[in-house]
Structures are given as structure tokens and as C-alpha cells.
Amino acid sequence: MSYWRIGVLGAANIAYNRFLPALEQSERFVFAGIASRSTSQCAPFLERFGGRGYPDYQSLLQDPEIDCIYLPLPPALHMEWGLQVLCAGKHLLMEKPFTTAAEDTAILLKEAERRGLAIHENYMFLYHRQLQEIKQIMALGELGQIRMICAAFTFPHRGADDFRYNPELGGGALLDCGGYPLRIASELLGGTARLCWSHLRYDDAHKVDTFGSAVLQNDRGLTAHVFFGIDDTYRCQLEIWGSKASLTAPRFFTAPPELNPSIHMQTGGEIREIVVEQDNQFLNSITFFARLLDGSESRPTHNASISRQGILVQQIQDQNKQIKRKAPL
Q1: Which of 96, 92, 98, 127 is nearest to 112 (CA)?
Q2: Distances from the Cα of 260 to the Cαs of 60, 196, 257, 273, in angstroms?
Q3: Do residues 122 and 148 make contact, with C-beta atoms less than 8 angstroms apart?
Q4: In the chain, beta strands by DSSP E
Q5: Is 82 helix (H, G, I), strand (E, B) or coil?
Q6: Cα dist from 153 to 24, 177, 329, whole Å
């Protein structure tokens, strides 16, 4: 089986802690090297994972031996460097969110199509067997008619130096954790999912939205309620309510590879626990990217899902642009 040589653009924690450990287990990719604006930041990566250190981003992009790039920079830099990746003729695996504006996402999608390049937005939870188990439960009718979908992803404050609290770097709850419940809501509602209502809360200390919520609906009238926040108690949950039973997945978005996540099925007063086998969702997302590269997954279909996600986020931004409400005390 042929393999692809991949470079990492930016010495982000997610690259060191999650992406590269998963990449080591892939038979489809070889880690070629990493570029950072500070060469000292590359040292831990090279010591642990090997590869070559590049003195700057352009040196990495100009290496003809590299086929594709993993880009985990802060969101505000995704458009600029994503475009440069594509213009260098490299396939692109982008951390979420793909960009901070739907029009920027459209530009990158068009450029990738024009150049015949594959792109992938790394919402890795979509590739965990937990979601496949939930979809099977729904397909078998165990929940009955689906009445409501609820998804929430929130976590406590991570410190003032974190990019999530910096508006210049594309910070804010919507662009960070908000994408997760929006993406699963869109996945389960299908291609006709549309935004009905949204609400973002801002505060003076952070200068970004710190939490928010939204309601989506599809053409069959099924709705999904989502909540997200970056200054809250931890919650990482998907709930689906049906006419016969309800389902709760309490560790849905961020299940680590060593975890056996649980799905709780409730029928009346009875609760049944379904234990899902361990799975590496980062590795599965990387494998999906490989299938995009070799053509066994549809690039137009995947690109359309990236576009829909960007449009939903943009609509929420537009709804709340003029009304920056402060968070309550």
C-alpha cells in the first residue's frame, strides 16, 4: 500500500498530544516534519516523533517531498495559511473550524477543487464507532420516532493566555467548541438542516462570546438544540429523545482511544447501558483523509458538508453581530 508524506504547520498542543500519536499508528502516512515560527518549539516534536524541523512555514510548504499538510493553527490563521498550502499544491487536513467566515471557506473549497486537491475538516468524533452504534440504534427503531436531539459541549476557563479568549486569533465559544454540537446536529438532521434561532453571550473580560445556544430544524420538522461554552462546567453530551425511549452519550465528542464510552438507553424507568468498544477517533479521521486522497471517499460530498458547517456558523455570527449581550453576573 502506498503512503503519503505529511507535514505539520504549527507546533500546537493538539498536534503533539493527539494528532501525531494517532498518525504513528497509520499505515497510510509518514510524518515528514514540522514547521514553527520558533525553532525551539519543534524540538519536542522531533525528539518524540522524528521527522525534520523547518525554520519557517514557507520552507515546509516548498518541500517537494511533502504531499499534504496538517494545519492546527489558531482559527484566524486558517484562511491565510490554508490558501498557501493549496497554492503550494499540497492536500490539506485542517483543524476545526475550517475558517472563521463562510466566504473564506468557500474560497478554499473552490481553490482545492480547481487544483484537484483533497481537504478535510478534523471533526474526529464523526469517525468514532460510538456514532455508528447510535445511528444503528436509530435505524432499528429502538427509540421510536425521533422527537428531539440535544447536544452540548462546554468546559471551564483555560486561562487568559489561551487563544480561545483572543478575538484577534479567532477565539470564542462558537468557533471553538460550538462547532461540535452544530456538526452532530447537522449530521443527524441531514442535508436540509437550517438555523432557526441562536443566541451568543459576550463579556467585557474576554472580548469574545463565552457561551451560546442554537436551534436547528430539518424539512421533516425534527429539531436539534445545541449549547456550547468556554467558561462553564464540563459537558460533552449527546441526547436523543424518541417516542419509545431516550438515549444519552455522556462522553460523545472527546472520547480518548483508551476509553470504552457508554451509551445509556432509557425506556420508562429502566436504564440499559451499552458499552462501546475502544476506538481511536483521531486515527479514524486520518484514515478518512487517506480515503479522500485516493478517491475512495467522495470529495464533493465531503466538501459540501464543510460548506454547510461554515454557513451555519456564519448565520449565527450574523444573527448576533449587532447584539453583543453581556454574560450575567
Answers
A1: 92
A2: 38, 35, 8, 12
A3: no
A4: 4-9, 29-35, 52-54, 68-71, 91-94, 119-121, 146-154, 194-202, 209-217, 223-229, 235-242, 246-249, 262-267, 270-275, 325-326
A5: helix
A6: 28, 6, 21
309 close to 286: Cβ distance less than 8 angstroms: no
pTM above 0.85, yes or no: yes
Q: What pLDDT, in 10s, does the model give residues 239-290?
A: 999 999 999 999 999 999 999 999 999 998 899 999 999 999 999 999 999 9
What's the burial of 157, exposed, middle or buried (CB within 10 Å: 0-12/13-18/19+)? Answer: middle
> Cell 460530498 maps to which residue?
301
The catalytic residues are: 96
Phi and psi angles of residue 170, each rounded to the nearest 5 degrees, phi first: 85, 35
Give the integer Cα–Cα distance in Å for 151 and 134. Answer: 14
Q: Exposed/middle/buried for 301, CB within 10 Å: 0-12, 13-18, 19+? A: exposed
Q: How far apart are CA 262 and CA 237, in angstroms?
A: 11
| Four-point Cα dihedral 238, 243, 245, 248, nearest 10 | 10
Q: What pLDDT digit, counting tens, does each position of 73-125 carry? A: 999 999 999 999 999 999 999 999 999 999 999 999 999 999 999 999 999 99
Alpha carbons within 13 A on the beta-carbon side of 274 = 17
288-308, pLDDT tens digit by residue?
999 999 999 999 999 999 999
